[in-house]
C-alpha cells in the first residue's frame, strides 16, 4: 500500500517498502536530489531535512515512520527566491565542493528557528554533526551569524 | 529510454570525433593540431575550445574539474576579462575529453630542477616539456596546476573571441571593426548602436578569429578581484548537479560490493539477495558484484545479503607487516638522491641530532562517495562522472565494455570533493559495466561509505630517518632518508600501464626541494615494493615529507637554541626571497615573540610546494579539558593572485584537511582489509574544533603558484611543533591523538 507524504507542501504517494529511509525516497523516488547521501549512519549530516520544522538525518528515518511534513533544501528556497539563510550562504561565498551544504543549510535553518540569536557555543553544539571535508566551517559560522541578524531585523 | 544523440545536442558537447564549424587557433602553434571538440548546433558559434555562444548566452568551457577549489570561477574570469562578458551572463561547463584540453603545467612539475629556483629559461623549458601533455592527452586536474596552465591560454581565447565579435558586428553595421568597442557582452559602435554577443552567434560562423595581444594587468576588471563563484547559488539551493543527480527517464539504482582485500572473487551466492524487495539484477563484476534495484537503499540491502568468498590480499595482511616492509626498504639502494649539496659524509663540528618519523596510510574520504551514472545503448556508452581525468575515464570505460573511445561520451559533473581520489577511473568503469549489463536502462550507481573507505587509493604510510648537525645557531648538515611505497609507480602502472623511468621526484617532494641554504644537504628516496593501492592525496609526497622535514628543522632549531621561526627565516633568506617573505609575514601577523603563557603553545612550519611557498603559525591551548587549536595564521606567495577570496578559501581548506589528518587520520589494515569503514572511525575536523584563521596573500614570486594543495603540508608540522612548545613532548608519529589529549 502506498505511503502518503507531504513534501515541500505537495502531497505524494510513495510505493516503496516502509523501511526505505526517507533519504532514498526523496532522491530516487521523488527526484529531489538536493538532499545528499554521505554516510548512511547519521555521522555526517549531508542528508539533513526538516520534518515539521525539526532537523533530522533523513538516512535514519524510515518511510513508514515519517511523522510530519517534510521540507528539503528545494522547499526552503529556490535560486530565484532564496531563503534568508541561503542568501547569507551566497553572500559569504561559503560553498566549495558544495556537497555537504544542503545539509549544513537545513541544519542551520532549524538552529535559527529555535535559537534566533545563537552564540558561538550554540553554533558549535548545533553544527558539529555536519561534516565538511572542504573545511568551510569559518564561512558557515559567519553566514549563520549574518542570517540571524538579517532575520531579526526583518 | 533516453536518446543518446538528443542528450548530446542538449549539452552542446559531442564526443571528440565530430568537428564541424569549430576553429582551432591561438598563439600556441602546438594547439593548432588539437581539434576543437565543440560542435556548434544551429544558431550557435564556437570560436575556440573554450567558448560557445548562442542566443541564450555565453558558455565558457572549463578544461579542468570543479571539485570545490573554485577553478570554474577563475577560468571563466580569465576568458571574461579579455572578452568583456558581463559576469552574470556566464555559464561554465566542464569540457569533454579532448586533446585541446591537455594540461601543460602538470608535466612541468616532474622535471628534476628545484622548482623554486626557476629562471626564465627553466620556466620556458618547463612549459616546453608541458607540450608533451598534448601528446599524452593529459587532460588531468591535479598538481595545483589548473590556473597556471590556463593563465595565458584562456585569456587569449577571450581576447581573440572579442576581436572576432567585433569583426562580425562590423560586417552587420557596415563599419570598420577598429572603430568598435566591447562592454557588458555587447559590441558598441561609435554612434551608440549596440549588438549583443548572443545576436552575433550566427554571423560568427564565417569569421576566423584573429590573434591579438593580451591586455595589461593594470586594466583588469575581474582578475585580481574576488568574484562571486559561478557555482555558488546552485550549491546553496540544492540545484547543483553531481554525478548521481543526473535525471534520466526510467532510472535504475545500483551499488557494488568489492573485495576489501583488493584482489579477486572466488565465488558468490546471490540466491537470497535475488529475491529481495526491489532487486532487478545482480551482476558479476569479477572482483565483486553489483546489484541493480528500483531504489539505492534496496540495492544496498541486497548487496549485503550476497554471500561472497574473496581472494587473499597480494600484500602483507596487517599494518605491522606493511610498516616492517617500509622500514626494510631503508636498507635498499635509494631510487633518488635529487638533493645532494656539499658532503654529508664529511665530519662536521657541532651537535648531532637524529630522529625517526612515521605517518600512516590515509583515505581521501570525500563527502560524496564514489558514484557515476551511465547509459549503454546501440549508439554507445554515455557516462556522467565526477572525475579529474576525462580522457582516461573515456578510454578505460571503452576498453571495459568493448567500445571504441569515440563511442563513449563522458560528462564531467560537479564533484563532491576530489582531493586526488577522482583522478581514478575505477568507479566509472564499474558504472559502465553495470550499464552494459542492462542495455537501454540508465543506471545510477552509488557506493556506500564503507566501500569508499575500504576501496580508496590511499596516501602511503611513510617513514623517515633524519640526521643533522647544528653549530653556531645554524644548520650545518641535513641527511634525510624517506621510505614508502611510490605513489608515482603505483598509480602510473594503473593509469598508464607503465612506470616512468628515472628518479621519483614526487616521492621526496616537500623535503629534497625545500628552499633552505644548508651547506651539506642530502635527501634520498627509498621505494617500498608493496601493492597496497595508492593515489594522489592532496599535496601527495609533500603531505608526509612536509611533516618529516619541517619537524626535523624544528628539532634542529631547538637543539641550536635558536628561535624556530628565525632559524627558518635565516636559511630561507639565503636561498629564496619569496619563501623568506612568507615566514616574515606570519611572524608579523601572529605577533610572534617566541614566548607564550604556560597553557598556550605556538609552532611555525614552512613548506614550498606546487610553486607556492606557505608558512603557517599554529596556536594551541590546554583548556584543562583537552587541547584545542585556537588560531592559525597562513601566509602564501602565489606570484599573481587571480581571485583572493578563492585563494584564501583554499589555504584554509588545505590547512583544515591537513589538521584533520594530523590529529586523527589513520587507515590501518587487518586480514588484508582497511579497518576503518565510515566517519565514526575515520573522522575529520568539525565546527567545534576548527580554529580561527588569518590569511595573507603575497605576490612577489616571479611565477604563478598553485593554491589547492600548498596549504596542506605545513599545517601538520606546525601543529606538531605547537604541541611540542606547549607540552615539551615531541610527537614523531602521526596521528597526534596517539600522543596528546586533543579535542576531537
From TrEMBL, chain A:
Residues 1-76 form the 2Fe-2S ferredoxin-type domain. InterPro entries: 2Fe-2S-bd, 2Fe-2S-bd_dom_sf, 2Fe-2S_ferredoxin-like_sf, 2Fe-2S_ferredoxin-type, 2Fe2S_fd_BS, Beta-grasp_dom_sf, Diverse_Oxidoreductases. Keywords: 2Fe-2S, Iron, Iron-sulfur, Metal-binding, Oxidoreductase. The keyword Oxidoreductase applies. One of its GO terms (molecular function) is 2 iron, 2 sulfur cluster binding. It comes from the Bacteria. CDD domains: fer2. This is Isoquinoline 1-oxidoreductase alpha subunit.
TrEMBL record, chain B:
Residues 489-511 are annotated as: Disordered. InterPro entries: Ald_Oxase/Xan_DH_a/b, AldOxase/xan_DH_MoCoBD1, AldOxase/xan_DH_MoCoBD2, AldOxase/xan_DH_Mopterin-bd_sf, N-heterocyclic_Hydroxylase, OxRdtase_Mopterin-bd_su_IorB. The keyword Secreted does not apply. It comes from the Bacteria. The chain crosses the membrane at residues 12-30. Residues 237-314 form the Aldehyde oxidase/xanthine dehydrogenase a/b hammerhead domain. Keywords: Membrane, Transmembrane, Transmembrane helix. This is Isoquinoline 1-oxidoreductase beta subunit. GO terms for molecular function: oxidoreductase activity.
Amino acid at each position: 500500500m502506498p505511503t502518503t507524504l507531504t513534501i515541500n507542501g505537495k502531497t505524494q504517494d510513495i510505493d516503496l517498502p516502509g523501511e526505505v529511509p526517507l533519504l532514498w525516497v526523496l532522491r530516487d523516488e521523488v527526484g529531489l536530489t538536493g538532499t545528499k547521501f554521505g554516510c548512511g549512519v547519521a555521522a555526517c549530516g549531508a542528508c539533513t531535512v526538516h520534518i515539521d520544522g525539526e532537523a533530522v538525518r533523513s538516512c535514519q528515518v524510515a518511510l513508514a515512520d515519517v511523522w510530519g511534513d517534510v521540507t528539503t533544501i528545494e522547499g526552503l528556497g529556490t535560486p530565484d527566491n532564496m531563503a534568508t539563510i541561503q542568501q547569507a550562504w551566497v553572500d559569504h561565498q561559503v560553498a566549495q565542493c558544495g556537497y555537504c551544504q544542503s545539509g549544513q543549510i537545513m541544519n542551520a535553518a532549524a538552529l535559527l528557528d529555535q535559537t534566533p540569536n545563537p552564540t558561538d557555543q550554540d553554533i558549535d553544539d548545533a553544527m558539529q554533526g555536519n561534516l565538511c571535508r572542504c573545511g568551510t566551517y569559518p564561512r558557515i559560522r559567519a553566514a549563520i551569524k549574518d542570517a540571524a541578524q538579517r532575520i531579526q531585523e526583518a | 529510454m533516453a536518446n543518446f544523440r538528443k542528450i548530446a545536442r542538449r549539452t552542446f558537447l559531442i564526443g571528440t570525433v565530430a568537428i564541424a564549424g569549430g576553429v582551432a587557433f591561438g598563439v600556441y602553434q602546438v594547439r593548432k593540431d588539437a581539434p576543437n571538440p565543440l560542435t556548434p548546433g544551429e544558431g550557435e558559434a564556437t570560436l575556440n575550445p573554450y567558448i560557445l555562444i548562442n542566443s541564450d548566452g555565453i558558455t565558457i568551457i572549463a578544461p579542468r574539474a570543479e571539485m570545490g577549489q573554485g577553478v570554474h570561477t577563475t577560468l571563466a574570469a580569465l576568458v571574461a576579462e579579455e572578452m568583456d562578458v558581463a559576469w552574470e551572463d556566464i555559464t561554465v561547463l566542464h569540457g569533454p575529453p579532448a586533446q585541446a584540453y591537455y594540461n601543460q603545467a602538470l608535466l612541468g612539475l616532474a622535471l628534476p630542477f628545484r622548482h623554486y629556483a626557476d629562471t626564465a629559461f627553466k620556466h620556458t623549458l618547463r612549459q616546453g616539456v608541458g607540450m608533451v601533455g598534448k601528446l599524452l592527452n593529459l587532460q588531468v586536474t591535479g598538481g595545483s596546476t589548473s590556473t597556471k596552465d590556463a593563465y595565458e591560454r584562456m585569456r587569449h581565447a577571450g581576447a581573440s573571441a572579442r576581436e572576432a565579435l567585433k569583426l562580425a558586428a562590423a560586417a552587420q553595421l557596415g563599419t570598420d571593426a577598429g572603430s568598435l568597442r566591447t562592454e557588458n557582452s555587447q559590441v558598441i559602435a561609435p554612434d551608440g548602436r549596440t549588438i549583443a554577443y548572443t545576436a552575433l552567434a550566427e554571423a560568427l560562423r564565417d569569421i576566423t578569429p584573429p590573434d591579438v595581444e593580451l591586455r595589461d594587468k593594470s586594466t583588469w576588471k575581474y582578475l585580481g578581484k574576488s568574484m562571486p563563484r559561478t557555482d555558488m547559488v546552485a550549491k546553496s539551493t540544492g540545484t547543483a548537479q553531481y554525478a548521481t543527480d543526473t535525471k534520466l527517464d526510467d532510472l535504475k539504482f545500483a551499488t557494488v560490493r568489492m573485495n576489501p582485500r583488493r584482489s579477486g572473487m572466488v565465488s558468490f551466492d546471490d540466491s537470497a539477495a535475488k529475491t529481495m524487495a526491489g532487486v532487478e539484477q545482480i551482476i558479476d563484476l569479477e572482483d565483486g558484484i553489483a546489484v541493480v534495484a528500483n531504489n539505492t537503499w534496496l540495492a544496498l540491502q541486497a548487496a549485503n545479503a550476497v554471500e561472497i568468498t574473496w581472494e587473499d590480499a597480494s600484500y602483507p595482511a596487517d599494518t605491522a607487516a606493511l610498516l616492517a616492509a617500509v622500514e626494510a626498504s631503508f636498507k635498499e639502494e635509494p631510487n633518488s638522491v635529487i638533493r645532494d649539496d656539499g658532503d654529508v659524509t664529511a665530519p662536521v663540528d657541532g651537535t648531532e641530532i637524529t630522529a625517526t618519523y612515521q605517518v600512516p596510510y590515509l583515505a581521501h574520504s570525500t563527502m560524496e562517495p564514489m558514484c557515476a551514472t551511465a547509459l549503454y545503448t546501440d549508439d554507445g556508452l554515455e557516462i556522467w562522472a565526477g572525475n579529474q581525468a576525462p580522457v582516461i575515464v573515456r578510454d578505460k570505460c571503452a576498453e571495459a565494455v568493448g567500445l571504441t573511445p569515440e563511442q563513449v561520451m563522458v560528462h564531467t559533473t560537479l564533484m563532491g570533493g576530489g582531493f586526488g581520489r577522482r583522478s581514478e577511473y575505477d568507479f566509472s568503469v564499474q558504472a559502465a559495466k553495470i550499464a552494459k549489463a542492462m542495455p537501454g536502462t540508465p543506471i545510477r550507481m552509488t557506493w556506500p561509505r564503507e566501500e569508499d573507505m575500504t576501496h580508496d587509493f590511499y596516501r602511503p604510510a611513510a617513514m623517515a630517518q633524519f640526521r643533522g648537525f647544528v653549530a653556531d645557531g645554524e644548520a650545518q648538515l641535513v641527511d634525510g632518508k624517506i621510505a614508502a611505497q611510490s605513489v608515482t609507480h603505483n598509480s602510473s602502472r594503473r593509469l598508464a600501464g607503465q612506470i616512468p623511468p628515472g628518479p621519483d621526484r614526487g616521492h621526496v617532494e616537500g623535503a629534497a626541494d625545500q628552499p633552505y641554504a644548508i651547506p651539506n644537504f642530502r635527501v634520498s628516496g627509498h621505494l617500498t615494493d608493496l601493492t597496497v593501492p595508492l593515489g594522489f592525496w592532496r599535496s601527495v609526497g609533500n603531505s608526509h615529507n612536509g611533516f618529516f622535514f619541517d619537524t626535523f628543522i624544528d628539532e634542529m632549531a631547538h637543539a641550536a637554541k635558536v628561535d624556530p621561526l628565525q632559524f627558518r627565516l635565516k636559511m630561507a633568506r639565503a636561498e629564496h626571497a619569496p619563501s623568506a617573505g612568507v615566514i616574515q609575514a606570519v611572524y608579523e601577523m601572529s605577533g610572534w615573540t617566541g614566548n607564550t603563557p604556560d597553557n598556550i603553545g605556538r609552532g611555525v612550519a614552512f613548506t614550498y610546494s606546487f610553486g607556492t611557498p606557505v608558512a603557517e603559525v599554529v596556536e594551541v591551548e590546554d583548556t584543562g579539558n583537552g587541547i584545542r587549536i585556537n588560531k592559525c595564521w597562513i601566509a602564501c606567495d602565489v606570484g599573481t593572485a587571480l581571485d583572493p577570496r578563492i585563494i584564501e578559501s583554499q589555504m584554509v581548506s588545505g590547512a583544515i584537511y591537513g589538521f584533520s589528518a594530523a590529529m586523527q587520520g589513520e587507515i590501518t589494515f587487518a586480514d588484508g582489509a582497511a579497518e576503518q569503514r565510515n566517519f565514526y572511525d575515520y573522522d575529520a575536523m568539525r565546527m567545534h574544533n576548527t580554529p580561527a584563521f588569518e590569511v595573507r596573500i603575497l605576490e612577489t614570486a616571479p611565477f604563478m603558484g598553485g593554491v589547492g594543495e600548498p596549504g596542506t603540508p605545513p599545517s601538520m608540522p606546525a601543529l606538531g611543533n605547537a604541541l611540542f612548545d606547549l607540552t615539551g613532548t615531541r610527537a614523531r608519529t602521526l596521528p597526534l591523538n596517539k600522543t596528546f589529549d586533543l579535542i576531537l
